[in-house]
Structures are given as structure tokens and as C-alpha cells.
Amino acid sequence: MSYVDRSTGEIVKCQVFVACLPFSDYGFAMAVRSQSVEDFLYALRCCLEDFGGAPALLFPDNLKSAIVKANPYEPDINRALEDFANHYGTTTHPARVRKPKDKALVENQVKLIYNRVYARLRKVPFFDLPAMNKAIKEKVRDHNQTRMQQKNYCRQECFLSAEKPLLKPLPEQAFEIKYYRTLTVGKNNHIWLQQDKHYYSVPYRHTGVKVKVIYTRSVVHIYVKGECVAVHPRVFYGTYTTQPDHLCSAHRHYLDRSPDYYMRKVSGKGSEINELFKLIFAQDKHPEQLYNTCNGLLNLQRKTEGETFNKACAMAIEAGNYGYHFVRNIIKNKMIYLPQETEEQPLPEHKNVRGKSYYKQTLLNFDTNETN
User: Fold this and answer.
1) Residue 255 CB neighbour total at 10 angstroms
2) Are 28 and 140 in contact (CB under 8 A)?
3) Which of 33, 64, 90, 318 is most buried, judged by most C-beta within 10 A?
4) 47 lies in a domain?
5) Within 13 A of 74's CA, how many CA atoms are on the CB side?
6) Shared-domain flag, residues 239 and 281
7) What pLDDT, on a 0 to 100 scale, did the predictor assign at position 372?
């Protein structure tokens, strides 16, 4: 099955996940973009939610998203699938390789889904995945409500009366796939999660220690020797997520930084630096970058003679360049001692100055008979 991307006109082919329960043959199907671990487990989660419970055993095929290495006795289960099974209180037992009879019911379900879902939707245009899955769900519902041959009931009736009461209740929270990383806590007692390009704080006593990070789509857990020392909501914007109690006293003042904080620090230190800081915060830049500029200027002021620093600030204001490096270079190169440029004096009037009419050839009279 496929749908058409409205923005590009591209035909996007999809994979169809099919499952069924063994006693009632109650079926489930939905389309996903790929057979990746994320898409496979998402489809499996939707399947259990549709059933309203979890079976005691999951019997998947040997696709790579479920099985790392096939074996007829002890196959290596994908860690994500193992986490999924543990979350829902079930277990996994994959079918043997090239043994379709191990999963005969779902093989037959695939054939029925093809005839009763795919064949009936093959000429229907879809423009996104949700619309396609809505149509699939309606056709699967019709399939489950169709009377079976030589039986006086349908799959849904058998499922509701005999099989659904035996399913395990679903947990309150839906499963989210977990990702695992081993990282080192930096000197600023934060870890850097490359996937988010974001820093997450860790209690300062663990600075320099290797930690285990387990994160999902919504939460980041940080462990030290099996103990969870920090939990953060996962953030996909900004740079830092910091809990104040994770910082030592030397770091806490960084959380209090603001334009007002820096304006109070330069209060009474000269009109030039006050004006310079106002112009710095009037710029459309990231606050962290502006704070670093202010820190650099305050550090430079402590190391520079007062009058020299004030003149350098005044030159920076006049030039319209409020950066730390610009002020530092003025002081380093002793530019405050350079003579001031004198204003240009107008040229004196004399007979050799041509007027503007000289350059407008239409106003000049040329004698065409004149020869050189």
C-alpha cells in the first residue's frame, strides 16, 4: 500500500503490520512507514491497545526489528522488543526460520487481509498515513464482523466472549522505546546528549564519572552504579536543562543571570560601560552569548586602568561594535592614544575649478569647424 505526499507528489510505499489472536482468529492490521524497530514496536503497541489487553505470549516472525540472531532453541531477542515484552508482562517466542506452519493462523490472516482490505482499497487515493490507517481499520472491522464459514458466529463475537477476558490488563503508561548510552559527566556537572544537542545536569558529586543514560521519547534517566541520580524531561530545543540542587555553590550564580543582574553589576562603574551594556542587550542575539560578552568585559575592566577602559568603551559605542574582542583590541593596540582625525577643510576658491556644467556636455558649445 502507498500514499501520495501532497507537498512533493512522491508516492510513499508503506509496510503493513498484521497480527491475530490464536483462538478467535480476531485480526488486526495497520500501515507503517518501514520495518524499523520504532515502527514495528509502535504497530505492536497499537495492536495490544486495539485488543484491550496483552496475551501471555508474542509469536513474531524473524524480522530484524524483533530478532537479532535466529536460533531454533534460544534466539537472540532484540533488546527493545524484550523491554516491550517486560513492560506489558508478556514474553516472546519467535517462529522458526522457514517454518510457516509455526504461525499458520497469521499466514492465513495475511491472505484474508489482502483480499478484504488491500484489494478493496487498491484504487482509493490516500494523501497521508493516518487517513490510510483509518480506512484499513474500517475494513478490518468489517472483516472481524463477517460470519465465518461453517460457523454461526464471527471473529469479533468469539473474541469478546471467550478470549478477551483472558488477556492481561494493559499498564497505565504506553511503552516507549528506550535508548542506551554511556557518557561522562563534564566539569560543568552536565552530560552532553549528542542526539538532542543538549546538556542535562547531574549532581555535582558525580563530576568526571561515567554514567549510564537511558532515554525515551519523553524522559531522560541518568544512572550511576545502578542508582538513578537524575531524571529530566527530554528537550529538543535550547542548550541546558539544569536542576538547581545539582549545582555546587560555585555554579549556582549562573542560574541568576539576566540583563538586570549585569546592569546592577556595572552600576556606579562609569557611564560608558553602562551605555555599552545597554546596547549589548539591545542586540538580537541568544542571551547566553550576551552574558558571556558581559563577563568578558567585566573581567577586562578589572585588569585595565579605569580611564583607559572608559575611553575604549566610548570608542566601541562610537564605532557601533559592542563585542569583547573589539574592546580588548582597542586596549591592546593602544588605539586610545592615536590622534583624533581632523575634519576635512573645503578647498579654496580659484579659477581652475571647473563647475558642474563642464561635465554636462549638452550645455557646452563646440565649434565643429575648429581644427586643432
Assistant:
1) 12
2) yes
3) 90
4) yes
5) 0
6) no
7) 46
